[in-house]
From TrEMBL:
Name of the protein: Bifunctional protein FolD
Organism: Thalassobaculum fulvum
The Tetrahydrofolate dehydrogenase/cyclohydrolase NAD(P)-binding domain, residue ranges: 141-290
Residues where NADP(+) binds: 167-169, 233
One GO-annotated biological process of the protein: methionine biosynthetic process
GO MF assignments: methenyltetrahydrofolate cyclohydrolase activity; methylenetetrahydrofolate dehydrogenase (NADP+) activity
Catalytic activity, reaction form: (6R)-5,10-methylene-5,6,7,8-tetrahydrofolate + NADP(+) = (6R)-5,10-methenyltetrahydrofolate + NADPH; (6R)-5,10-methenyltetrahydrofolate + H2O = (6R)-10-formyltetrahydrofolate + H(+)
Subunit architecture: Homodimer.
Gene coding for it: folD
Pathway: One-carbon metabolism; tetrahydrofolate interconversion
Biological role: Catalyzes the oxidation of 5,10-methylenetetrahydrofolate to 5,10-methenyltetrahydrofolate and then the hydrolysis of 5,10-methenyltetrahydrofolate to 10-formyltetrahydrofolate.
Keyword Oxidoreductase: yes
Amino acid sequence: MGTGAIIDGKAFAEGLRGRVAGAVAELVRDRGFKPGLAVVLVGEDPASQVYVRNKAKQTVEVGMHSVEHRLDADTSQETLLALIAELNADDAVDGILVQLPLPAQIDSQAVLDAIDPAKDVDGFHVVNAGRLATGGAALVPCTPLGCLLLLKDRLGDLSGLHAVVVGRSNIVGKPMAQLLLGANCTVTVAHSRTRDLAAVCRQADILVAAVGRPEMVRGDWIKPGATVIDVGINRVPAPDKGEGKTRLVGDVAFAEAAEVAGAITPVPGGVGPMTIAVLLRNTVEAACRRRGVPVPGM
Ligand SMILES: Nc1nc2c(c(=O)[nH]1)N[C@@H](CN(C=O)c1ccc(C(=O)N[C@@H](CCC(=O)O)C(=O)O)cc1)CN2
């Protein structure tokens, strides 16, 4: 088997942001409103600071209204809930995103469930999770929806394909499985306690790795020709680059896997950039649905 095709998430995300910008311009021109996104960061986690900065920057670049709230690491749950209540009541805000992870003193699910489900552009509210599971009109978590868009772009119709999702988090694994089921795949959800995980993965036509363990999925876990989507973003030491240097790797051992797979997402430049592009798309969708306006094609 030769080297698999590289799925360029960065390029796809750029195209999606262009289509979102077009949709925003159309809404401003024809409907007289500008979608707005509020992003809330609690604490100083360096990676979260970069993601929040990029979210605000890209929100403005596609022509939307951007609101940023940065709170101290020792912020109480009560203070955060009061801010969420304000944003729920603010008509200029169509989407609310609280950057995860949150500091230990805060109950994350309580905060996510305080967001108005109509403004829950992360799709983490239990109402949106329930709608996704039952085929309703949900706002869908950005990373798994980004993976689905990449898969459909690559494979077209996914009907009847066996998809194995490694990971069962509420944020990626479970919604990913629901989306693949909705696309008529046969879905297996595997995880760190699955017996003979390698053999389960080898059955996959589509393999989605979302376990958060650097390079756990090896080349010989992959069925020849399979499409591999690597959701992991792990920073690991890179002594070859110099003392104290690091590099990003996924949950899949990329070089080995690319030898066997039909197509594979790289890290960086695969799934990661899709997360923010889909967030912008979800914000347009939320803005239109709140006003009873048809959602422009994106
Ligand atoms: N409320 C949320 N919190 C978090 C989410 C989320 O969807 N909602 N996801 C992640 C972080 N995240 C966005 O918030 C995110 C992760 C990665 C990327 C990305 O573009 N990654 C690049 C590499 C970036 C780097 O150099 O570090 C890539 O993979 O190419 C964007 C957004 C957790 N929190």
